Amino acid sequence: MKKKLSKQRVGKVIEILENHYGDEGCGLDFRTPYELLVATILSAQCTDVRVNVVTDELFKDYNTPQKMLTLSQQKLQEHIRSCGLSKTKSKNILATSRLLLQVFDGEVPKTMEELTELPGVGRKTANVVMSNAFGADAIAVDTHVFRVSKRIGLATGNNVLQVEKELMEMLPKSYWSKAHHWIIWHGRRLCKARNPECPECPLKEICLYKDKTVAEI
DNA sequence: AACTCGGGGCA
DNA sequence: TGCCCAGAGTT
Known about the structure:
Elements (H helix, E strand, L loop, with lengths): L6 H15 L11 H10 L5 H14 L3 H4 L4 H7 L6 H18 L8 H6 L5 H11 L9 H9 L8 H11 L5 H14 L28
The structure holds a DNA duplex.
């Protein structure tokens, strides 16, 4: 039996998150489509803070497919070492850059189908590019968004597709991008997968998950 | 659905 | 030391 979601409640949750976080934690949405694509590939199993440190340096000289391909895989691997999984990621970034030049005329494609064809680009990365770079009607659901949305009562689904659909239904489109950031930031800072800091949480009065000390989601 | 990739931050 | 991290690909 699914719990019913109320738009009124959702509005309250978003209002609280906005007042609490505002412009904090505006991670990966300020780059060009290519930079955003590369940064998001790098973000797998790695915190946004580390991705930003690495890409701030990397993109000074290598912010297009052409420039990226002047790097050997070995050299790129050294640049992105601290993001982890650097062997796979460097290989995928170079293969993707090659495909962009050979198949997509040097541009980042604008459909989910084409994006997910690129090596190292899965549903989540494609979604981030579609929504953040091209303003498409999409909300990227990662582990934080999935967990936090369910805890604070923005979604009830049991997979990312359901949660994505619910969030798009429950949130005004003008808030999709901002809400996405707030939810992720909240998941990093307080609503952590394990040992969430509920006493510090601005949502503790209305959260469905309050007072839990062990993660169940 | 479960497993692997992986270096660095933090307890 | 051991655990964890804005996922993707393979089996």
